């Protein structure tokens, strides 16, 4: 037999092509949980991003979402499965890391606002790159301010801690 005649043997079987299409559809379904900003970070075509965004706008009746998922799966064929999967993992991991930093900043700000200078000194000992003067200034403003002012100052303190704790 001639090797050129057996080129059909090197093609994936119909079953394998269906499995690959289903895997792309499942990947597309996972992508529907991402925000528009996160989708733009992924190596996807603009058409695929638009289809994913439209999926979230569809009603949950009459199979509309199922048909849209099939479309997303078809559009995903033009994208690199491995690259998209890896980028999805990195974006998810980055978002989890950012939410953990924000949670830590919120906890530290609550400690500062309840315990004052004692807690500021403890935090400065743990995180030497933080500015003691800035923390004390925010704490004093919090103590002097009214209820509306206190919310603004609390937000400033959380933002300051979140941006400087990640360094």
Count of the domains? 2
Main beta sheet strand tally, sense and closure: none
Measure the end-to-end span. Answer: 65 Å
Binned, the helix content reads: over 70%
Q: Roughly what fraction of the amino acids lie in strands?
A: under 5%
Computed CA radius of gyration, to the nearest angstrom: 26 Å
Low-confidence stretches: none
Assembly annotation: single chain
What is the averaged pLDDT score? 84
Helix segment count? 8
Q: What is the string of SSEs from the N terminus onward?
A: HHHHHHHH
Structural classification:
mainly alpha
* Approximate shape: elongated
**Total beta strand runs:** 0
Overview of the structural elements:
Helix 5 (81-115) runs antiparallel to helix 6, helix 5 (81-115) crosses helix 8 (147-165) and helix 7 runs antiparallel to helix 8. With 167 residues, the protein is mainly alpha-helical. The chain is elongated and about 75 Å long. The chain contains eight helices and no strands. The mean pLDDT is 84. The protein has helices at 14-31, 36-41, 46-57, 64-76, 81-115, 117-126, 132-144, 147-165. It folds into two domains: 10-79, Orthogonal Bundle (Diphtheria Toxin Repressor, domain 2); 93-165, no CATH class.
